[in-house]
Write a structure and sequence with these properties.
seven-stranded antiparallel sheet, 31% strand, disordered N terminus, Jelly Rolls, elongated, eight-stranded mixed sheet, mainly beta, 34 strands
């Protein structure tokens, strides 16, 4: 095939006419053509959408330094460049530098691709090169107001000596109505024309697929099918009586007659899922009646028996005093003081009852806060007695019950008497879980008074009222 390089065409004043430069064109057969007065008229539709450029001698395979890689004597893709060679630069790290260049001491963009209007749709053939010989490239940059050197100029290969490029595969020929396949050598082949509604069966590595019209051939193609050759079962077909297999995602299967191997009455429950049918399908139930669930169930005279372990919570109406064994006792306590405690005048002073006579559930703190904390909500009875010394001249002595750090009840108030005096009182009060209670004393005689242990006479007690 003859190769024409560096032939520059100029457009005439007549639309759709390309005027060749003057001279003589010689073909390999020896035939010559005088171009001095000849012109070739092409229909404009033949070149619509593409801008065919004169071929280039070589093309890049990687990003290069244009100023030093396209000089006379440089080697590019196995081609030794000479001054004036056209070179396709397509792999630059900055795609805006791509384009067609003229090799020389100062490489520059070619005159047919140095403005943006000459960029979009450009098509060029590469003549030589180890990698790029006889390849065809299309510039994929978009039309518009692009700027040379600023906007990207990208290229894609659309063909080579073997044929049309589809992605990275060469398509040489195809059959109408056929299926394309890869031969494994980088070439796309085509099967014969497929018949209407044909099933495609692979032909193996390197071979085109074929078609099959029968269920027997489909069975052979499946390879791992179970059963003998016969018709293919389609939607709505009859399965017959398969010896084994797993049936999934199937509707309208009659559980009562279509499934075997279930325990007695299970199929009945699956068809009619009532509480009565559920009771029939299990064998270790106790009691009778309707099925209940965890949230707000209604239990009709249930008998829990004697469970070996478990926690009963949020249950009302259970008699704490006699509702069961192994549960916590009714919270109650009694505490005293083991030494005298000074009560300053006109000052509310907490009494530090530091010794417990009993505390059934460890709800009283005798070491740090000297208080009782209610474990559950309810009605509580609290009482205290204080053995006073040095109360003569006092306007009065008092004892108070504090709840959560504030006065809630005054247990008593008496005028002061000389010598020793013992006064006490009690009160019934509502409490929420985690409310805490303390005893405070008060006197206003003008000087200190004393609350004494007095053989454990001074004390603080309380109990939950069931």
């Amino acid at each position: 095939m003859a190769t024409f390089r560096n032939i520059v065409c100029t457009s005439s004043t007549t639309a759709g006419t390309v005027v060749w430069p003057s001279g003589t064109l010689t073909f390999p057969s020896g035939t010559t053509l005088d171009l001095s007065a000849a012109s070739v008229v092409l229909p404009t539709s033949a070149i619509s959408g593409f801008d065919y450029k004169a071929s280039v001698r070589a093309a890049t395979t990687a990003s290069v330094t244009i100023s030093t890689a396209l000089n006379n004597g440089d080697t590019l893709d196995g081609v030794t460049l000479t001054t004036g060679d056209r070179v396709l630069v397509k792999n630059q790290a900055a795609p805006a530098d791509n384009g067609i260049y003229i090799a020389g001491a100062s490489p520059a963009r070619s005159a047919d691709m140095d403005v943006w209007s000459e960029v979009p749709g450009a098509v060029v053939v590469v003549e030589e090169g180890t990698v790029n010989a006889d390849s065809v490239w299309l510039c994929t940059a978009n039309t518009g107001s692009g700027v040379i050197g600023t906007d990207q100029i990208t290229w894609g290969m659309i063909g080579n000596a073997a044929g049309l490029i589809v992605g990275t595969t060469v398509l040489t020929s195809a059959t109408s109505g056929g299926v394309l396949c890869s031969t494994g050598t980088g070439v796309l082949a085509s099967s014969g024309a497929l018949t209407a509604n044909a099933i495609v069966i692979g032909g193996g590595a390197g071979a085109a697929p074929s078609t099959t019209p029968t269920g027997a051939n489909v069975l052979t193609a499946l390879g791992e099918a179970v059963g003998s050759a016969g018709a293919v079962v389609v939607n709505g077909g009859t399965l017959g009586t398969p010896s084994s297999g797993t049936l999934t995602n199937c509707s309208s299967l009659p559980i009562s007659t279509g499934v075997t191997g279930m325990a007695a009455n299970v199929s009945t429950f699956l068809v009619t899922p009532t509480s009565a049918n559920l009771a029939l399908s299990v064998t270790d139930e106790t009691g009778s009646g309707a099925l209940v669930f965890a949230t707000s169930p209604t239990l009709v005279t249930p008998a829990l028996g004697t469970p070996s372990s478990g926690t009963l919570t949020n249950c009302t109406g259970l008699p704490v005093a006699g509702g069961g064994t192994g549960v916590a006792q009714i919270p109650k306590f009694h505490a005293t003081i083991t030494g005298d405690q000074t009560i300053a005048t006109a000052t509310y002073t907490k009494i530090t009852f530091n010794t417990e006579d009993f505390d059934t559930n460890s709800n009283y703190d005798p070491t740090t806060n000297y208080r009782f904390t209610a474990p559950i909500a309810g009605k509580y009875l609290f009482g205290a007695r204080l053995y006073w010394f040095n109360t003569s001249g006092a306007a009065g002595v008092s004892a108070y019950l504090y709840k959560n750090g504030s006065v809630v009840e005054r247990l008593y108030q008496h005028p002061g008497y000389s010598g020793a005096n013992l006064w006490g009182g009690s009160v019934l009060i509502s409490a929420s879980a985690n409310d805490y209670f303390e005893i405070y004393a008060y006197q206003d005689r003008g000087s200190n008074s004393t609350v004494t242990a007095g053989a454990s006479i001074s004390g603080f007690w309380g109990t939950l009222i069931p």
